[in-house]
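Exercise: predict the fold of this chain.
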Amino acid sequence: MQVYVNEKYIESRAKMGRRTSMVGLTILGVGMVATFLPGWMASTLSTSAFGRWYVSTGWMIAAFGCLLAGFLLGQFGNYNVRQFQRSPRSDQIVAKALKGFDDRNRLYAWATPGDLVVAGPSGIFAVVTRGLTGKITIVDDRVRQPFSILRVLSFGQESGGTPALEARDAAGKVSEWLTKELAAEQAIPVSPLVIFTNDAAELEVLSASAVVIHHKKAKDYLRDQTRPATLTREVLQAAIGRLDEEAKRREAVIEA
């Protein structure tokens, strides 16, 4: 299997995550200072109109504003750190799960209009991942997990959300791009696929509008798939060729 990885993009997002996390922590610190400042400097601050406003009301606005901004920036930063810096990354887990496929197969990691795209004799798949752990139930496309106070208190914890809908959106985006790039007479089919990447995930799918599987079953699933009837072998090869070109244009490297 050939794996195209956009290392430059991954490193830039990891760096942005680290910096954004630090900014978020700094703003949270400013909010803490804003909370105690009126008590420390009440007599000094009350000598001006702004100071009197700050002592009476302004400190609350500043504190809550910093709390909200710091929390949002921290969440955004931690998401990028988790997605692009922690090892193994989601694309590395998927690549390992699919190891053994021949070079007719491709995995593109942040190297095409879809974040993760798998293409090969079975067709083209837009992949969305989740690294959640524990008991996971998919009901009406939404991830449900038993309540856990540790998960609530974990800053930057990955959200379950609706990965099946995300995968469908990603598949539509890749399909639209390929159809336009190849000037195809009909839409090139791209299948949505959700892969849970944590070994400790206990997955139960009750109702989902896209295929949802554990990474340990990904290889068997793709091996058992048949190419859509509307995707001829010639069009599939042209699509893979165009995906290869796009990956190279984005300076993705081929990893073993």
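Check your answer against the key: Strands lie at 2-5, 106-109, 116-120, 123-130, 134-139, 142-144, 191-196, 201-205, 211-214, 253-255.
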